[in-house]
Amino acid sequence: MFAFIILDNDAILDHYQAHGLEKSLKLFYNRFTPDFEAYGPGEFFLDLGKETAARQIIYQIWEELVPVYGRKAVIGLGPSKLLCRAIALLDLKDLRFLNLIVEERPQGLLIILPVEWETKVRPRLPLEVLWPLDLKIRRQLLKLGFKTWGEIEAISPEQLKVQLGNDAYLTWELAKGQFSGSLQRPEEGIRVNIVWEEGMSNLGPALDQGAKQLAMTLEAQWLGCRELTLEGTTGAGRLFWRKRLFLKPCSSAGVLQGETRRLWHKLKLKDDPGELLLKAEGLEPMSMRQLSLFNESDIPAKEEQLQRLLNRLRKDYPASVLDRAVRWNRSRREQMLAFYDPWRF
Q1: How far is 280 from 228, CA to CA, in rounded Å?
Q2: Average pLDDT in the 310-330 region?
Q3: Which pLDDT belongs to residue 107?
Q4: CATH of 189-338 among 3.30.450.40, 3.30.1490.100, 3.40.50.10440, 3.40.30.10
Q5: Are 18 and 59 in contact (CB under 8 A)?
Q6: Which of 23, 199, 248, 285 is deepest in the core (most CB within 10 A)?
Q7: How many whole angstroms separate alpha carbon 201 and alpha carbon 272?
Q8: Predicted confidence band at 256 (pLDDT cuts at 50, 70, 90)?
Q9: What secondary structure letter does DSSP report for 271?
């Protein structure tokens, strides 16, 4: 049995809050099952196993969601990934028409579709909740007079092809309940293989190139990493690794290159490596940064140099001292920017 849970997310204002809620919900759902997939802010698929055990688990989740998060939830429990979200999207009048098991409480709505009811309920579902199908195709089908999944299933895909083209086959299969039931696992990290030429004594340039490639991948996805790991095997097959933790998400090429070299020197390998891998984990969205008003080519180099200096100072001075120093004696330009752009400062 699969469950689809929609947690009320009206209070989410930006992608930072959405990411924080998603991260918190992952920890919450992991207490009940390791098999889950994030579909959107506050929306998750859960694989709960057999029906008897799934009902017990879903009631427990339903009871704890409101005390933990203070938000109502709509939960659809069904025999497939396709159907559990479909019934969760139904209106109350449609739920009563289909005679589904519905429980309405202050903590939200719980809809259950037993396995033995699937063949009776699925053909009667409205086209509006055939969610994997593109919205334009659903609207086109409604204009053609189709209203339920069963009406689509009753005709052949060749007949649909006249109106929908190649999308007719996908539409017909979805109406019959044929949909991939596997959950998509979230990406846990980004890996980059470090390549160097044979006989190369100094691996510094290869390490820099690998760190630069990792930084470009992170920046392209607007992500930063909290963990940087350098791992690999020696020529004899011995495993080795070193890890660096960051206080804030990092995607700077200069910082990653410097930390990669430090990790390499800390390994103090006596044998030549057979394979090297650089891995970024603990991925989080990077904070927004105001675009520079000046078109100078050396600005990134200056930023990296300042970042290295600040990282060096943090080893000798507490963060509170550095924070006071940043706020001390702001220039006239910074005061004006703070007045016109208060969110930046």
Answers
A1: 5
A2: 61
A3: 75
A4: 3.30.1490.100
A5: no
A6: 285
A7: 9
A8: very high
A9: S
The C-alpha angle with vertex 254 and arms to 207 and 205, in degrees rounded to 5, equals 25
CB 246 within 8 A of CB 228: yes
Pairing, β 73-78 against β 108-112: parallel
Q: Is 236's pLDDT higher than 80?
A: no
For the segment 15-43, the average pLDDT, to the nearest whole number, is 80
The DSSP letter of residue 73 is: E
- Cα separation, 330 vs 264, whole angstroms: 39
C-alpha to C-alpha distances, 181 to 7, 70, 107, 110, 270, nearest whole angstrom: 22, 30, 28, 21, 49
d(CA 64, CA 75): 13
Q: Which amino acid is at 271?
A: D
Beta-bridged to residue 77, according to DSSP, are 3, 112
- The separation between the first and the last C-alpha atoms of the chain, rounded to the nearest angstrom, is 49
The span from the CA of 140 to the CA of 145, in Å, is 9
CATH class of 2-175: alpha beta
The label of the residue with tokens 């990077």 reads 286
Domain chopping of the chain, boundaries? 2-175, 189-338
What is the rounded CA–CA span in Å between residue 249 and residue 50?
40
Same CATH topology for 2-175 and 189-338: the answer is no
pLDDT classification of 183: cutoffs 50, 70, 90: low
Query: Strand 223-234's sheet: what is its strand order?
Result: 189-194, 273-285, 223-234, 239-250
User: What six digits make up the tokens of 157?
Assistant: 């895909």
pTM of the model: 0.56
**Residue 345's pLDDT is what?**
43
Tokens 């998509």 correspond to what residue?
Answer: 184
Per the CB < 8 A criterion, the answer to whether 42 and 19 are in contact is no
pLDDT tens readout for residues 153-164: 888 888 888 888
Residue 51 has pLDDT above 70, yes or no: yes
Percent of the chain with pLDDT over 90: 5
